[in-house]
Amino acid sequence: MDQFGALEDQVPVAAATREAVILLAKSAFAAAPHQDMQKLAELAAVQYPQAHIIYAFSEQGRPSFKQALLELTEQSFDQILVLPLVLPMEPSFQLWITKALRRWQQESDKSWPEIKLGATLDKSPHWAELLKNLLQQTVQSIPLPPLEKPFNEGSLIPAQKYRMLVCEGRACQAAGADAIWCHLRNEQERQKLRIVGDGMMSAQTSCLGPCNLAPVVQVFPDGTWYGGVTEKAIDRIITEHLLGGQPVEDYAYSASGKKQRLRKV
Q: Does domain 7-123 fall into CATH 3.10.450.50?
């Protein structure tokens, strides 16, 4: 199986299926988590055979939530159920996912099926039983080495010129910062941005300040502020700023020390 879990390699859809389910996890950085999600999708397909079951990731990993959703809207489903497999659940999750869905639908030129959001794991009546089962499982002891005098080993200082900070403050989370982070990280991996051009690194950060411009991204070393960031904006920032050396004025805001309103792009 392709380590990125391409949709076409996941559980096949039956001809009469009118419902699709997205098992939504947070992130995956290697092949093993994708394989685990594939197993969950196969298990869900046995338990819920009337639906086409796939998986996706909200933060990093492929397929991303947006990619999976848009591919499903191209097919003839009456409804799509999003089942979040995330613990703990952030209070802003339902808010940002609703805003992201509305924005993606507005950007699309096709009609969408009904989208439903499933209950979170902590709402399951079997949660206590599951915890009890896990606590009673035989666990493996972790051997700890004897204490030794710490070795003062050096550390490499990253040579990449650019640092891209994605705000994860409350306002930015509610505006869909997780979806923006997901797109950035997937593009960073796909385009090998750490080693292409002057190189870049990315990080999530607590509140950056300009909450009314959410979602907010800041690019260093020049410190350029970007507001109202979408996936399209991330693509332009990568192409024009990180690789081309020129800030994207359509989304950029000057560090004037004065209040600024979010512009429509």
A: no
Distance CA 68, CA 104 (A): 12
| CA–CA gap between residue 166 and residue 145 (Å, rounded) | 38
Q: What is the pLDDT of residues 189-244, one digit of tens each?
A: 999 999 999 999 999 999 999 999 999 999 999 999 999 999 999 999 999 999 99
**7 pLDDT band (50/70/90 cuts)?**
low
Q: Which pTM was predicted?
A: 0.77
Q: Which residue has the tokens 């800030």?
A: 247
CA distance 121 to 141: 28
Element (H, E) at 57: strand 51-60
Cα–Cα nearest to 222, from 237, 207, 239: 237
What would you measure as the largest C-alpha separation in the chain, in angstroms? 65
Q: Provide the residue type at 72 as one letter.
A: L
Fold of 162-253: Glutaredoxin (3.40.30)
pLDDT digits (tens, 9 = 90+) for 98-108: 989 998 998 88
- Buried residues in 21-36 as b, exposed as e (16+ CB within 10 A): bbbbbbebeeeebbee
Give yes or no for a contact between 181 and 199, defined as CB atoms under 8 angstroms apart: no
Domain spans, the chain: 7-123, 162-253
